[in-house]
Amino acid sequence: MANRSRLHSDGYLFPGFSRNLVDAVIVAEDGAFYSHGGVDWFEVRESIEKNIDERRAARGASTITQQLAKNLFLSTSKDPIRKTERTDHHTAAGEHAQ
Q1: How many CA atoms lie within 13 A of 98 on its CB side?
Q2: pLDDT of residue 70
Q3: How much is the pLDDT for 57?
């Protein structure tokens, strides 16, 4: 089996999986993955508005990149301060591959 840690010549990282399957998972989890720089500010705004309207944490706006940073470096707490720290970690780590 090919080494999954290396990009293939066409930039595809998952040779054991259909590109359509990988794209479907990415779109289902983070529809703007290829167009935002790690933080989807439109979704952040939408989430804030919904959460204020419902007066509770009704909707999140985490991108795949933010979820990865959280899982690697932070706790699973839903504390808003921790979410800000996650954004800072992502910014320090740089943007995901486009």
Answers
A1: 5
A2: 86
A3: 93
Closest to 95 in 3D by CA, of 12, 33, 42? 33
Closest CA to 84 of 44, 28, 35: 44
What is the distance between the alpha carbons of residues 87 and 97, in angstroms, rounded to a whole number? 17
Structural tokens at position 55: 């007066």
Structure tokens at 32: 């703007």
Burial of 77 (C-beta count, 10 Å sphere; 0-12/13-18/19+): exposed
Interval 36-40 mean pLDDT: 94
* Average pLDDT of the segment spanning 20-36: 91
Per-residue model confidence (pLDDT) at position 53: 97
Long-range contacts of 11-16 (CB under 8 A, 24+ apart): 11/97
Q: What is the pLDDT at residue 33?
A: 92
